[in-house]
């Protein structure tokens, strides 16, 4: 099969916060940069996030996620990044070519360097009734509500009390759904206190040490059976939607296809490509950033993207070692700040262990 073949200095796969920031750093250094994403809109998870970010102004504190996404995408286009949306990367071959399925047809591109910023996928577990309509990932529910204006159900049970579970529960409440409860097998809430306080103010109960036993219904979810972790009491919630916020796993298929060495770190979501502090994998010219390099906050993804873009530009000969080093130091300081709190300690330790592996 003869496919059209293009060349580029740098291809960034994924137009989420990491990919957008990697592209910006590279193009500003003079790198011909092509940014590919399967969605019709840039921003990754940001474009469906309507809550205001907190943290530092450098990472868009006080702005809503979709506003940050639009700003970063606009900066990319203005700086000269070739942003190609609705373009799915089907393969990343040993010769370095990427196969892309775009609206104009399938083609190959052979770049001198690649940043893999493919993000993450939602985790799921199997239980009786888990395939019933009405059982869905919390991210899917968030997309329905915030992007398409569709309520996934009138009465919702959320499984998982991490940040995603808490934030999506609050957004469902704002959209008019009744969230009858949040359950978690853990003995403590996994998300930030600020998010827990929001749902608590709305009267949403949290059931710790509880797990799903079954989703029940004829044709769709009508109720969910929940039991305590000790195997004692069981409860039945009459709901028409069960949201699963059970964590995220890095999307590593392209990195694995390219032959990048994989490591496993539970704190970062499971298997991910080995990488050093400059976001280089063990394959020459292949970088990784954002959730594909371990599940963390969007602000961390932005900084890792910047790190990858800076290093790629240096290795392509378009950024001097001195300038690249100064830029990396600034990024490293911001990363240390982001991982300095109690929620970042474990992830920082996991990252350090990867770099030394």
Query: pLDDT under 50 segments (min length 5)?
Result: none
Specify the overall morphology: globular
Q: What is the number of helical segments per DSSP (H or I, 4+ residues)? A: 9
H/E element order: EHEHEEEEEEHEHEHEEEEEEHEEEHHH
What's the overall average pLDDT, rounded?
Answer: 93
Number of strands: 19
Largest beta-sheet characterization: 7 strands, mixed
Question: Span from first to last CA?
Answer: 40 Å
User: Radius of gyration, Cα only, in angstroms?
Assistant: 21 Å
State the share of residues found in helices, binned by percent: 25-40%
Bin the strand percentage.
25-35%
Main structural class: alpha/beta
């Amino acid at each position: 099969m003869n496919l059209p073949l293009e060349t580029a200095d740098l291809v960034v796969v994924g137009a989420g916060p990491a990919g957008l920031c990697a592209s910006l750093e590279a193009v500003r250094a003079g790198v011909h940069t092509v940014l590919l994403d399967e969605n019709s809109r840039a921003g990754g998870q940001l474009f469906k996030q309507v809550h205001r970010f907190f943290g530092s102004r450098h990472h868009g504190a006080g702005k809503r996620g979709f506003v940050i996404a639009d700003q970063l995408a606009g900066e990319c286009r203005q700086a000269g990044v070739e942003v190609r949306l609705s373009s799915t990367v089907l393969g990343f071959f040993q010769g370095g070519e990427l196969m892309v399925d775009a609206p104009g047809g399938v083609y190959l591109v052979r770049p001198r360097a690649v940043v893999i910023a493919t993000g993450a996928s939602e985790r799921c577990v199997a239980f009786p009734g888990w395939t019933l309509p009405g059982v869905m990932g919390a991210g899917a529910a968030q997309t329905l509500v915030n992007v398409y204006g569709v309520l996934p159900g009138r009465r919702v049970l959320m499984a998982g009390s991490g940040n995603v579970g808490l934030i999506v529960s609050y957004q469902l409440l704002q959209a008019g759904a009744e969230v009858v409860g949040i359950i978690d097998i853990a003995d403590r809430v996994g998300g930030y206190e600020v998010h827990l306080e929001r749902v608590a103010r709305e009267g949403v109960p949290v059931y710790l040490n509880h797990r799903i036993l079954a989703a029940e219904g004829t044709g769709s979810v009508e109720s969910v059976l929940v039991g305590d972790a000790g195997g004692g009491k069981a409860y039945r919630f009459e709901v028409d939607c069960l949201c699963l916020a059970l964590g995220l796993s890095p999307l590593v298929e392209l990195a694995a296809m390219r032959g990048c060495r994989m490591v496993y770190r539970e704190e970062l979501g499971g298997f991910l490509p080995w990488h050093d502090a400059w976001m280089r994998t063990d394959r020459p010219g292949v970088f990784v950033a954002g959730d594909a390099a371990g599940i963390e906050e969007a602000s961390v993804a932005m900084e890792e993207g910047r790190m990858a873009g800076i290093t790629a530009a240096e290795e392509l000969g378009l950024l001097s070692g001195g300038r690249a080093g100064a830029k990396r130091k600034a990024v490293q300081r911001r990363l240390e700040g982001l991982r300095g709190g109690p929620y970042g300690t474990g992830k920082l330790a996991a990252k350090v262990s990867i770099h030394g592996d």
